[in-house]
Batch of 2 targets.
Target 1
Amino acid sequence: MVANIKTIAFQGVEAVSVEVQVHLAPGQNAFTVVGLPDKSVAESRERVRAALSAVGLALPYDRITINLSPADLPKEGSHYDLPIALGLLVAMGALPQSAVADYLVMGELGLDGSLIGVPGALPAAMAALAKNYGLICPADCGPEAAWSGLAAPDKPGIVAAAHLLETVNHLRGHQLLPPPQTRAAPSAGDLPDMADIRGQKEVRLALEVAAIGGHNLLMSGPPGAGKSMLAARLPGILPQLNAGERLEISVIESLSSKRGGVRLADRRPFRSPHHSASMAALIGGGRQARPGEISLAHCGVLFLDELPEFSRQTLDALR
Ligand SMILES: Nc1ncnc2c1ncn2[C@@H]1O[C@H](COP(=O)(O)OP(=O)(O)OP(=O)(O)O)[C@@H](O)[C@H]1O
Ligand SMILES: [Mg+2]
């Protein structure tokens, strides 16, 4: 029998639908994952096998084939563990297909069956909301996913459990989990105050104009003239974020986080990368595509202190 579980892959900040298809066929004992998995996805076999045995289930002595469809889209990250495990449970008859039909699933599994947070819960929840699905994710990702509004009473909801067994019990209706609650960001303390600056009327006017109009600003002057000091005080005079911008900033933060648990942004980002930062660190990309400094500064400020020290290639790439 074939079981289908819906999950996602990330292309930049876009969440692309991916289907995990699990097929059990009588025959030689084998477990293969196909559909362009990277190393972390291929290794999920071992985590899934251990996690299922931790909840008292042995994998059938069959030929198990997992296909991540569309097959030509490269899949990376550890969030395919949980959809693969739930797909196997459906294929083995331990869970009805209808119990998971309305959910997007994401999450990493520990060998003991615990669910480990993954990046991207907020964009995943937003994708689920757009398609009118619910979201099954690790408990650590629950509060972050709840910011999407998916946990509202009239929506399919978020199932955020700390263990595979809790997820399965919830889906079978044995032990209901409470919907996750959003967590407010702890106030990050006061920003450096523009009132610390003595004089410098023209530069302050230029900073104000740049802050309101979203303009680029180049400061040049002798050492000790106060350039770094003035730039550090720019975040304090930036306009308030609106709801859409807060969500946009948080989506990027969510994708670059390691274990999820991102809180909703309450202020504009101020990024000041060192001039020795690599091109991938600044503009994003690399083997595992992650947002770069320029993306992390979305709706905020990218401050390049000691600008002439940055390499020509990075400045060109930023341009
Ligand atoms: N207008 C000012 N009001 C108050 N303090 C100032 C002012 N200008 C400079 N300072 C003092 O001088 C110090 C040095 O300033 P800052 O490091 O911002 O200079 P800079 O222009 O960035 O120099 P560099 O080119 O060497 O990086 C500040 O930390 C602050 O103590
Ligand atoms: Mg300086």
Target 2
Amino acid sequence: MKIAVRMDDITPDMDWKSFLKFEKLLDKYGIAPLIGVVPCNRDTNLMREASRVEFWDYVHKLTQKGWCVAQHGCYHQYTTKKAGIFPLNPFSEFAGLEKEKQKKLIRDGKEMLKHHGIETDIFMAPGHSFDENTLEVLKESGFRYLTDGFGDAPYERGGLTFFPISVKRSDCFREKEGFTTLVFHTNGMSEEEIEGYDKMFAAHRDQFISYREYLKQTPVKRGWIGQKKEWSLATAKRVTVRLIALVRSKSAQ
Ligand SMILES: [Zn+2]
């Protein structure tokens, strides 16, 4: 499989230390990722360092070297307990909200990015959670692409093109045709993890592509069976992640 890289939770107050190390790593292997920039971060979990004033200029510099930017929600605040139509997590900034509220959040976020000179038609939903209303609002607000969903190729849904993410990291390295995305969160990423990723990129360099190349792939049509399969996989993944967390918390007691 060909693998694109996406980095979540990019904010002026992120864990810059890990971010800069990961950036160096991607540069070493010549991989340009997609970064999910939060227009106005209000999520305290993402506040890792003092906010840097040069952040927005830095984002511009990254785009100049081929990195892509996605709008990562608006405030990155989970205000509902809905999992939506790609149910990986039982919380959301959008799923479950009435359409007008979603429209305000998405358009406010878009305006804020524009104020910083960033225009993008790629959307990254915080927590991977969104519903049918989110898709309608995105389409009406000029978005064309979403980084989410499961599958082996970009696909069309509700007038938008989805660029799937991986279900399981190890599956990406099997001999198989198609495309996927590996998702990375640099906030709190340890030195050991970064070393591990260094080895991973070195071992599989020929499989990695830049996100811009992923965006060039022609999307396939997706029917209701494909959608059902994706929903079941996302639900299974959510349940598995919960069970593992439960077992870990029990064994830690
Ligand atoms: Zn996020």
